[in-house]
C-alpha cells in the first residue's frame, strides 16, 4: 500500500497534521530529519490510522503514490530550503512539495519559480490554528498552481475546519498568495489582540474593574457581535489565578509582549504596497514599546495623568464595547485592503470573500463577524473598503459617539490606546472632505520642486518659491 500524503517535519505542528490526515482515513508517510520524532509518533499514535514511517528520504518518497504530495512542516527559513534541496532531486514531474510552515511570501514566490522549472509544484500553504487546529481542523490557505489544488485540495479540505459542512480551505491563488494571506491573517490577529488588550486596560484602570470582573464582561461580549475565539480565550486568561501567589495571573506576567515576526512582515509588505494598515502597525509597535524595558525605565517619570478608577462614566463598559467593535472593523478593513492590493500587484486574483469564509473557523481570528465580511465581498467583490458596506457602515455610525468618548477618556486619563486612537484617526482621515495633504504637497513643492496638481484644472504645476512665487506649468 502506498501513502496518499507524506509529512516531513514532525515537531508539534507536523505531528498533529499527520495525525489529522490519518484520522480522516488517509495513509500517511512520515519523515523527520532525526528519526526519533518519527518513531515517537508511531509509538504514541500509530493506532489512530495508517502510517508508513521512513528513516531515509528515499524510502519516504518511494512510499508515496503518484503524483506525490509531500507536506513540509519544518522551522520556516533555512530549514525549508534544506528540505527542498533534499527532496526535489528525489521527486518526479507533477509531484508536489507543500510548505505548510510560516514562510515569507517572497521566499515562497522564489521557491515556486525555481521548482516550476524542474516540473514540480510548490504549494506555499498557510495553516492557522496552532497545534490544536492542526489536529482537529485548521484553517488552510494554499497557494500554488490550480492543477496542484485539484490533486491536493480534497485532502486539505478533508482535514480542515468546517462551518456548516463547508471546509475552511480554498485555493487562494498562485505562488505566494497563500502565505501572503496567512501573513495578513496574523497581522490582523496582532491588531485584534492589541485592541482587546486596550479594552481590558481601560476597563481596569478607568472602569475600576478587577480582572475577574473583566473576564465576565468579555464573556458577555462573546455572546454578542464581538463573539470570537480571541475574546473567549481573553476571558479565560483574565479568570486565571496564579497558584503560587493567589494573585490574578495577568498581574504576575511580565508586561513585555513578544513576537515571532509575521506582524512585522505584514507591516513591511503594507509599506511596500502603500496600504495604510495603521491598526496592525500600531499593534506591532505597541509590542515593541512594551518590550523595551530600558527606555520604559528611563521614561517612567515623564509627567502626565494617572488614571482614576471609576472616572469613565456609567456607560464606560458599553462605550468600550463600541470602540472595540469599531476599531476592529477598521483593522479588518485595512487587512482586507492589503490583500486586495497585493492581489492586484502580483496578479493573484484573490477573492476576499473566500478569505473571510475560510477564517470563520479553525484559525485564531475565527469569529461570527467574518460572516458579515464574507457577505460584504460576495455582494460587491470590488468593495473599496469594508467600511462602506451597509452592515459595517451601520456599526461604525452607531459606535461614533462612544468611540470618540473612549479615545478622549484614554487621552485624558493617560491610558495608552494606540489601537483605538489610530483606528479613529484612520476613519476620520477617510471621511474627510479635505485633508492637509494639500499643505504637504505645497511643502514638497517648496523644498524639492516636486510639483502639485490643482483642484480647478488638469496638469502638474510648480511655484517658483525662491523668486517671484509665480506658478509655472511643470
Ligand atoms: P519548529 O518550527 O520548532 O521546527 C521543528 C522541525 O523543523 C523539526 O521537525 C526539525 O527537525 C525540523 N528542522 C529544523 Br529546526 N531544521 C531542519 C533542517 N535543517 N532540515 C530538516 N528539518 C529541520 O516546529 P513547529 O512548531 O511544529 O512549526 C512548524 C512550522 O509551522 C513552522 O514554520 C511554524 O512557523 C509553523 N506554524 C506553527 C504554528 C504553531 O502554533 N506552533 C502555527 C502555525 C504555523 P528535528 O526534529 O530533526 O530537529
TrEMBL record:
GO molecular-function term, one example from the UniProt record: phosphogluconate dehydrogenase (decarboxylating) activity
Pathway named in the protein's UniProt entry: Carbohydrate degradation; pentose phosphate pathway; D-ribulose 5-phosphate from D-glucose 6-phosphate (oxidative stage): step 3/3
Enzyme Commission no: 1.1.1.44
Binding positions for substrate per the UniProt entry: 102, 128-130, 185-186, 190, 260, 287, 444, 450
Keywords, in A-Z order: Gluconate utilization, NADP, Oxidoreductase, Pentose shunt
Top-level EC class as recorded in UniProt: oxidoreductase
Residue sites binding NADP(+) per the record: 9-14, 32-34, 74-76, 102
Gene3D superfamilies (alphabetical): 6-Phosphogluconate Dehydrogenase, domain 3, N-(1-d-carboxylethyl)-l-norvaline Dehydrogenase, domain 2, NAD(P)-binding Rossmann-like Domain
Role summary: Catalyzes the oxidative decarboxylation of 6-phosphogluconate to ribulose 5-phosphate and CO(2), with concomitant reduction of NADP to NADPH.
Protein name: 6-phosphogluconate dehydrogenase, decarboxylating
Naturally occurring in which organism (per UniProt): Actinoplanes auranticolor
Amino acid at each position: 500500500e502506498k501513502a496518499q500524503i507524506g509529512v516531513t517535519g514532525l515537531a508539534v505542528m507536523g505531528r498533529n497534521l499527520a495525525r489529522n490526515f490519518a484520522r480522516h482515513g488517509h495513509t500517511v508517510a512520515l519523515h523527520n530529519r532525526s528519526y526519533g520524532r518519527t518513531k515517537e509518533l508511531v509509538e504514541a499514535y500509530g493506532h489512530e490510522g495508517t502510517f508508513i514511517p521512513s528513516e531515509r528520504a528515499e524510502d519516504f518518497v518511494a512510499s508515496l503514490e503518484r503524483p506525490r504530495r509531500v507536506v513540509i512542516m519544518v522551522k520556516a527559513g533555512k530549514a525549508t530550503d534544506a528540505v527542498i534541496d533534499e527532496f526535489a532531486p528525489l521527486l518526479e514531474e507533477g509531484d508536489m512539495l507543500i510548505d505548510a510552515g510560516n514562510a515569507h511570501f517572497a521566499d515562497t514566490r522564489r521557491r515556486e519559480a525555481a521548482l516550476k522549472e524542474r516540473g514540480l509544484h510548490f504549494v506555499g500553504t498557510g495553516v492557522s490554528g496552532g497545534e490544536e487546529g492542526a489536529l482537529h481542523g485548521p484553517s488552510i490557505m494554499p497557494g500554488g498552481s490550480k492543477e496542484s489544488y485539484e490533486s491536493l485540495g480534497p485532502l486539505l479540505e478533508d482535514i480542515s475546519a468546517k462551518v456548516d459542512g463547508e471546509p475552511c480551505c480554498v485555493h487562494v491563488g498562485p505562488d505566494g498568495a497563500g502565505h501572503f494571506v496567512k501573513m495578513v491573517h496574523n497581522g490582523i490577529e496582532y491588531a485584534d489582540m492589541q485592541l482587546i488588550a486596550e479594552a481590558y486596560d481601560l476597563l481596569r484602570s478607568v472602569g475600576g474593574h478587577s480582572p475577574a470582573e473583566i473576564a465576565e464582561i468579555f464573556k458577555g461580549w462573546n455572546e454578542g457581535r464581538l463573539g470570537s475565539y480571541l475574546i473567549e480565550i481573553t476571558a479565560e486568561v483574565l479568570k486565571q489565578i496564579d497558584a503560587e501567589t493567589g494573585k490574578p495571573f495577568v498581574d504576575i506576567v511580565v508586561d513585555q509582549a513578544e513576537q515571532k515576526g509575521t506582524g512585522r512582515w505584514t507591516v513591511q509588505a503594507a509599506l511596500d504596497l502603500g496600504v495604510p494598515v495603521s491598526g496592525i502597525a500600531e499593534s506591532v509597535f505597541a509590542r515593541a514599546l512594551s518590550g523595551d524595558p530600558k527606555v520604559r525605565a528611563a521614561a517612567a517619570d515623564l509627567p502626565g495623568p494617572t488614571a482614576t478608577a471609576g472616572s469613565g462614566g456609567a456607560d464606560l463598559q458599553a462605550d468600550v464595547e463600541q470602540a472595540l467593535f469599531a476599531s476592529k472593523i477598521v483593522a479588518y478593513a485595512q487587512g482586507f485592503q492589503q490583500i486586495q492590493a497585493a492581489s492586484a500587484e502580483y496578479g493573484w486574483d484573490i477573492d476576499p470573500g473566500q478569505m473571510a469564509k475560510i477564517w470563520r473557523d479553525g484559525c485564531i481570528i475565527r469569529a461570527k463577524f467574518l460572516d458579515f465580511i464574507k457577505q460584504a465581498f460576495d455582494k460587491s467583490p470590488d468593495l473599496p473598503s469594508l467600511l462602506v458596506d451597509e452592515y459595517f457602515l451601520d456599526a461604525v455610525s452607531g459606535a461614533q459617539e462612544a468611540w470618540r468618548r473612549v479615545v478622549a477618556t484614554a487621552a485624558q486619563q493617560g491610558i495608552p490606546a494606540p489601537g483605538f486612537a489610530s483606528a479613529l484617526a484612520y476613519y476620520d482621515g477617510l471621511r474627510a472632505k479635505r485633508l492637509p495633504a494639500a499643505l504637504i504637497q505645497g511643502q514638497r513643492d517648496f523644498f524639492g520642486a516636486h510639483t502639485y496638481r490643482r483642484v480647478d484644472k488638469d496638469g502638474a504645476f510648480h511655484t517658483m518659491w525662491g523668486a517671484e512665487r509665480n506658478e509655472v506649468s511643470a
